[in-house]
Amino acid sequence: MPKAKKIAPKSSTISGVEKDVDMDEASVISREEESSNSNFAQALDKLTENITKVIDEKVNTVLVAINDQTVQFQASVEQVGQAEERIAGVENSTESLKATVADLQKKVSEMSAHIDDLENRGRRCNLRLVGLPEGTEGSDPVHFFEKWLPDYLKIATKAGRIKLDRAHRSLAPLPGPAQRPRPVIIKFHNFTDKQRVLNAARQSGTDPEGSANTGPRISFFSDYSAMVIKKRKAFDDAKKRLQKMKIEHALLYPATLRFTINGTVKRFASPDDVTAFIDSLG
Description:
Elements: H1 10-122, E1 126-130, H2 141-153, E2 164-169, E3 184-188, H3 191-204, E4 219-222, H4 226-233, H5 236-244, E5 249-252, E6 256-261, E7 264-268, H6 271-280
Helix pairs in contact: 5-6
């Protein structure tokens, strides 16, 4: 009896085919996943590259700006340093100049005082007449005043005249009919004659420097520089107050007010000081 042939089960064959199909599908899926992953990686790389590029551009712009600012700041620091050096040099020079200016101011003040003193010494023999009508002296003022002064002030002289060097009106413009006449400047040959005239004017006048003769009021003054006149004029208010208080006083050269009160001699070189003293008297 012949042997029967063994036939493999169909399920086993089908199972193998299914496995092959599954493997193919898995392979396809795997390749698709790999392709997808590769595409994603490429896209990610591209995105990263783009982001990096943008960031680099932005950062480079910022770095360039920062570098420019740093350069400018360093330049400013250098300029400030140079300015500080120059300022320090100027300050040092200023301190030196201050000392120099102070020294020069002191010298100028001393020279000004010396020049003013010389000017007043040159005027020692001068006398200033105020109030004499224009034209009274005629065409020869020296000859006129040599005889007019002793006659007007009742001064005894050997030859009936006082020797003068010069006599003229001040250099101001000729005044109108209703204006005050210009002062007359008289230069005496001798200082003692000038003092005699001033003393006679004080004795005949109603105030320390003036005359009370009939006719126009004519006052006699020593001829001082503008600086001394300004200093002496500052005492006018104090002199008026002393006169009202019936206190005898004198304004000494160049500008010192002297008076006696309660047996004590007072001297003031400052108008403010004498005013304060008079106020303290009540």
